[in-house]
């Protein structure tokens, strides 16, 4: 399987940019720069930036990073490079595939990807994890995960609503990774996004094969559409040394852990 066609585009998309007032509204709907985030301590050493959190990090980080007690607005966090918390959900489905000339089928996986909207303050227009979002100050990680799934995936026919319980999400946590990525957007300028990312792997529970048309965001300015990619192809592209201009960048530690979690490697 290769990339599936994009099926959903926001009605308030880049074509409306001539209207500056409407354009500003689109950016404000895509994210709230004034929302508050808990701040977290930086990793113990620079070598632990872009790394999986393990027990040798110590009790301030493992099994879950502890906030400092300070909060800051989202807009400043991405300018100042403060460490904060986010959740990421990969929705995957197993399927059987038979290579040409092979006698037996092999089990493979399909991965749901979202395309970030052109109005996002980090990585606009790029293909990303199925669902993701920041953990606001004082909020619970699991509650945030459920809320983000409903907001980013639960529009349209609402097929995913109620499909996964809080317990399902809790059991699906694969790892927590520190992510330190810099970039630049035309609207917001330079950003430094430093996150502790709680990564979840949810296996598709639908009775029919997963399709992009099953998903839609409640707020069109957050997500432009969805695509489905073969898991092995996704991992291969994420590991390329040259920059893949269509995918949100991930550290090699993240990619290796994801490959094992979705069954592309043992």
What is the structure about, briefly put?
The protein has helices at residues 20-30, 74-80, 141-153, 166-171, 231-238, 252-261; strands spanning 36-38, 71-73, 83-97, 106-116, 127-128, 131-134, 173-185, 189-203, 223-230.
Could you characterize the architecture of this molecule?
- Helices cover 21% and strands 28% of the residues.
- With 266 residues, it is of the alpha+beta class.
- The strands form two sheets. Strands 3, 4, 5, 6, 7, 8 and 9 form a seven-stranded mixed β-sheet that branches. A two-stranded antiparallel ribbon has the order 1-2.
- The longest helix has 13 residues, at 141-153.
- Residues 1-22 have low confidence and may be disordered.
Major sheet summary line: 7 strands, mixed
Tell me the number of helical segments per DSSP (H or I, 4 or more residues long).
6
Seen as an oligomer or otherwise, the chain set is single chain
Mean pLDDT: 87
SSE topology string: HEEHEEEEHHEEEHH
Low-confidence stretches: 1-22
Give the terminus-to-terminus CA distance: 21 Å
Backbone shape = globular
* Structural class based on helices, strands and sheet pairing: alpha+beta
Helix content: 10-25%
> What proportion of the residues form beta strands (DSSP E)?
25-35%
How much is the radius of gyration in Å? Answer: 18 Å
